[in-house]
C-alpha cells in the first residue's frame, strides 16, 4: 500500500452559505466513513483560512523570522487534507473522485515517497 | 542496424518492452534491458544467424541482462530486494497472453494522469521504439525538452504508482477514447511526411482492433487510417506538392488497403453504435468508392457529416461539412456556412474559403484568402499547392 495526499483546493474569500456548507459536511462524513470501512483511512481534516497562517523562516546564524500570513498569496489555497492508503494511483484517483464530488472543490492527488 | 535485427526491432521492440515492464515493474530498467538485448543481437546474429524465435530470444536475453544488472548493482538493500523479487514465487509467468502486455503498456502510457503530449511521446517511445530525437522532431521541440518530458512521465508512472494494467471494463470506454486519440494523433503527425509514424499508428491500430474486436470505434479508427493511407501514393506530385482528393489519380490508390478499410467500415456499421471515427471512416469509404471525383456520392457524404455534427460537433467538422454542401447545393450556401465559422487561425479554413470564392468568380477576395491560408501553414506540400492555386488567379 502507498500513501497519497488528497488536497482540497478552496477558493479564497467568503465560505459558502450555511445550508450549502451543511450538505457538503454531510457528504464529507459519508466519504470519510467509506474510507474507514475500506481500510483506506489514515487522517483527514479541514484547515482554518489562510489569514490564520504564520510563516517561520530560517535565517543565517540560526535565527528564525516569524511573519504573519500565508506563504504565498493566491486565489486558491489549501482548504483541507485527506491522507489515504491505496494500492496504486487508480485507486487513489477513485477516492479523489469521491472527494471532489463530496466537496464540489478541485482535489490534488499526490503520492508520498516510499512504500508507506 | 543489420537487416535481420532491424526487422525484428521494428516488429518486436514494443512487445519486448511490454513483457519486461511487467517482469521488472520499472519502465527504465525494461528499456535498458531490451536495448542491451538488441545490442547483443547485433553482435551475435551475423555469426550465429537469426534464432528461430527472434522475439523469444530478445525477451529471454533482456530478462537475463536485467537480472545480471540488478545483481551487479545490488549494493543497496533495495536492489537486493528487487533481485530477490524476480525469483519470488508468484512472479508472473513469462508466458501467457503476451499481447495483453502491449495493451497494458498502451493503457499505462495513455493514462489520463499524464499530459496528452507525454502520452503520445511515451507510446511512440515504448511501443514504437522511436528514439527521443525522432519523437522530438515529430513534435517540433528541441531534443532536451522531449527528453525531459519523457523522464517526467516515466517518473510519474513510477512515483505515483500508475498501475500497469488494462483498466476495468467500467473505465474502458473513457480510456479507449484517449488511446484512440493518441493513435490518431500519431497517424496525423506522420501524415505531414513521416511515413514511419503512419506505419506505427497503423500497427497500433491493428493491435487494438485485434485486442478489442468488440469496440466499434476501435475498428472505425483502423478503417479510417487504412482508407487515408491508401491514398498516399496519389497524394503528392514527384516534387512534393499536395494533390487534392479531387485531382488525385485514383488508379494509384492502394486497392488492398481500401478493400480492408471498407470491409472494416461495413463490419462496425453493422453494430449500429456510430461514433466519430466510424463516421469519418464511412466518409472516406464513400470517397474510395467513386471511380472518378465527379462520381462521388456527395449526398451520402453530406448525410454522414450531418450525423458527425450531431455526435461530435466542432468548427472543423462544420468546415468539412461545408465542402460537401458546396458539392450538393453550390458554392454560395457553402460560403455562407464557412463565413459563420470562427477558425481564423486554421489554414484549411482560408483554403476552403479561397476555393469557394474562386468558384464564385470573386478573384481578388480568393487571392487574399489563399494568402491567409499560406501564412498559416508550415507544411511544404500544402504551401506548394496553395501557392500554385493563388498563382492561377494572379496573371500579373
Quickly describe the structure.
By secondary structure, chain A is of the alpha+beta class.
Structural class of chain A: alpha+beta
Please outline the major beta sheet of chain A: 4 strands, antiparallel
Residue windows where pLDDT falls under 50 for at least 5 positions of chain B = 87-98
Cross-sheet strand order for the largest sheet of chain A: 2-5-1-6
Question: What CATH architecture label of chain A applies?
Answer: 2-Layer Sandwich
Output the CATH homologous superfamily of chain A: Dimeric alpha+beta barrel
Helix content of chain B: over 70%
Largest sheet of chain B: none
Q: Which two chains form the greatest contact, residue counts included? A: A-B, 11 and 9 residues
Looking at the chains present, what oligomeric state does this protein adopt? heterodimer
Total number of helices of chain A: 2
In whole angstroms, the N-to-C terminal distance of chain A is 6 Å
Which structural class do you get from the secondary structure elements of chain B? mainly alpha
Using the CA coordinates, give the radius of gyration of chain A.
16 Å
* Number of distinct beta strands of chain A: 6
Distance between the termini of chain B: 53 Å
Proportion in β-strands of chain B: under 5%
Spatial shape of chain A: flat
- Report the principal-axis shape of chain B: elongated
Order of helices and strands of chain B: HHHHHHHHHHHHHHHHHHH
Total individual domains of chain B: 4
Amino acid at each position: 500500500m502507498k500513501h497519497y495526499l488528497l488536497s482540497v483546493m478552496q477558493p479564497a474569500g467568503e465560505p459558502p452559505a450555511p445550508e450549502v456548507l451543511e450538505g457538503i459536511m454531510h457528504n464529507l462524513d459519508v466519504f470519510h466513513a467509506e474510507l474507514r470501512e475500506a481500510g483506506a483511512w489514515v487522517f483527514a481534516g479541514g484547515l482554518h483560512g489562510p489569514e490564520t497562517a504564520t510563516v517561520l523562516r530560517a535565517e543565517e546564524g540560526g535565527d528564525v523570522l516569524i511573519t504573519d500570513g500565508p506563504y504565498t498569496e493566491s486565489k486558491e489555497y489549501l482548504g483541507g487534507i485527506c491522507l489515504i492508503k491505496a494500492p496504486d494511483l487508480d485507486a487513489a484517483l477513485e477516492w479523489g473522485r469521491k472527494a471532489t464530488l463530496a466537496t464540489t472543490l478541485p482535489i490534488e492527488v499526490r503520492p508520498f515517497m516510499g512504500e508507506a | 542496424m543489420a537487416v535481420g535485427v532491424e526487422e525484428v526491432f521494428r516488429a518486436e521492440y514494443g512487445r519486448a518492452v511490454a513483457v519486461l515492464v511487467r517482469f521488472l515493474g520499472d519502465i527504465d530498467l525494461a528499456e535498458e534491458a531490451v536495448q542491451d538485448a538488441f545490442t547483443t543481437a547485433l553482435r551475435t546474429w551475423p555469426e550465429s544467424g537469426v534464432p528461430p524465435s527472434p522475439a523469444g530470444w530478445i525477451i529471454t536475453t533482456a530478462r537475463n541482462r536485467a537480472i545480471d544488472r540488478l545483481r551487479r548493482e545490488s549494493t543497496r538493500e533495495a536492489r537486493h530486494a528487487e533481485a530477490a523479487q524476480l525469483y519470488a514465487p508468484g512472479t508472473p509467468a513469462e508466458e501467457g497472453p503476451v499481447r495483453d502486455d502491449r495493451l497494458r503498456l498502451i493503457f499505462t502510457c495513455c493514462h489520463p494522469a499524464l499530459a496528452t503530449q507525454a502520452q503520445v511521446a511515451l507510446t511512440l517511445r515504448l511501443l514504437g521504439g522511436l528514439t527521443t530525437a525522432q519523437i522530438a522532431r515529430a513534435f517540433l521541440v528541441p531534443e532536451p525538452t522531449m527528453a525531459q518530458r519523457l523522464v517526467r512521465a516515466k517518473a510519474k508512472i513510477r512515483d505515483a504508482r500508475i498501475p500497469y494494467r488494462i483498466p476495468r471494463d467500467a473505465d474502458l470506454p473513457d480510456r479507449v477514447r484517449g488511446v484512440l486519440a493518441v493513435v490518431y494523433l500519431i497517424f496525423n503527425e506522420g501524415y505531414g511526411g513521416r511515413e514511419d509514424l503512419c506505419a506505427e499508428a497503423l500497427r497500433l491500430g491493428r493491435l487494438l482492433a485485434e485486442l478489442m474486436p468488440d469496440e466499434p470505434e476501435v475498428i472505425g479508427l483502423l478503417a479510417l487510417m487504412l482508407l487515408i493511407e491508401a491514398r498516399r501514393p496519389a497524394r503528392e506530385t514527384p516534387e512534393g506538392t499536395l494533390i487534392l482528393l479531387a485531382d488525385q489519380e485514383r488508379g494509384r490508390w492502394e486497392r488492398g488497403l481500401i478493400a480492408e478499410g471498407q470491409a472494416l467500415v461495413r463490419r462496425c456499421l453493422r453494430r449500429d453504435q456510430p461514433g466519430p471515427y466510424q463516421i469519418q471512416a464511412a466518409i472516406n469509404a464513400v470517397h474510395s468508392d467513386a471511380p472518378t471525383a465527379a462520381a462521388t456520392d456527395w449526398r451520402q457524404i453530406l448525410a454522414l457529416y450531418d450525423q458527425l455534427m450531431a455526435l461530435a460537433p466542432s468548427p472543423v467538422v462544420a468546415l468539412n461539412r461545408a465542402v460537401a454542401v458546396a458539392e450538393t447545393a453550390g458554392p454560395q450556401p457553402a460560403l455562407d456556412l464557412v463565413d459563420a465559422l470562427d477558425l481564423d487561425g486554421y489554414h484549411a479554413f482560408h483554403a476552403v474559403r479561397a476555393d469557394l470564392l474562386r468558384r464564385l468568380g470573386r478573384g481578388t477576395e480568393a487571392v487574399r484568402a489563399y494568402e491567409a491560408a499560406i501564412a498559416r501553414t508550415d507544411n511544404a506540400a500544402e504551401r506548394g499547392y496553395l501557392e500554385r492555386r493563388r498563382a492561377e488567379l494572379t496573371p500579373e
